[in-house]
């Protein structure tokens, strides 16, 4: 889908229905804000293939251990959605690696009442479960619950509770260090090592890699560990926002998988050469220095994509949709309220699976800090109007 979008979104294409003035203005914006589409789809494919190959190696290396089971990667974030606001050399390809409990273990999600945001932070309690009874008892392992500690120490590797947990809770920092160490040791085993050199960059709660070709071109990758909430598209993420540093056993609720799924939904239904991704890129460049977060902008465009028919997102309407986006944001700043997209949203596409608690829940206000601080709202409005 992204490859099709990239071809459709070529700067050299023009629509006969666009007025010469609009074409000229779009060309000026494209040059001024460097809106040419990066090769997101091809690089994303390289990153996904690399991580899938690494996971295959991990399954072989850790098949007899009790580390978390690494599930297939899920591309998230703006680069995987097809619209990164950054310059090509600064783009980071973010991949979620969902974690499942190993044999003899279970994950239980608990609200983190000690955190600053208890509604969005949780802890993952790891419990040992019996493996010596049931319909298909595992004959190749000792039961952590029903064999003696001496037998376990002598004949079986340590449980997850004794490796990557702090107390009974899954520890994001320990998982990150474990995976970083694995990547360094396993690099020579993947085909990509013949074409790229690799450096693991410092990170406490994720695995950041820099892939370098002999030509000097680099690709930045961030692997974030996650645990799915039930069967929904909402996950708990090991990587907190940069401004936060919660305890290593605190995992924050993430909507990144649901957001990526929403943009795939739009891409399949939008008209040829839809302007919604270019609208995001252009508005992100315009808003640089305003203090408004990229997430607030992204939320605004997601709301507009459900409020304005997709037929009205043709390329010839780009300037109108940019104007709509800026006006919507301006109104939200005035009202000190921007509703989170995934809470109690009647326009949510059916294929996006949300936890039952999201339906009818009080929507989170992304501008709550402005409602609590009138001076901050005044400053935000001033910066916005200066733009």
TrEMBL record:
Gene3D superfamilies: 1.10.1410.40
Topology versus the membrane: Single-pass type I membrane protein
Transmembrane recorded as keyword: yes
Pfam families from the UniProt entry: Mab-21_C (PF20266)
Record bears the keyword Transmembrane helix: yes
Cell location: Membrane
Annotated keywords: Membrane, Signal, Transmembrane, Transmembrane helix
GO cellular component: membrane
Residue span(s) of domain Mab-21-like HhH/H2TH-like: 291-351
PANTHER family linked to this entry: CELL FATE DETERMINING PROTEIN MAB21-RELATED, INOSITOL 1,4,5-TRISPHOSPHATE RECEPTOR-INTERACTING PROTEIN-LIKE 1
Record family assignment: Belongs to the ITPRIP family.
Protein name: IPIL1 protein
Species annotation: Molothrus ater (Brown-headed cowbird)
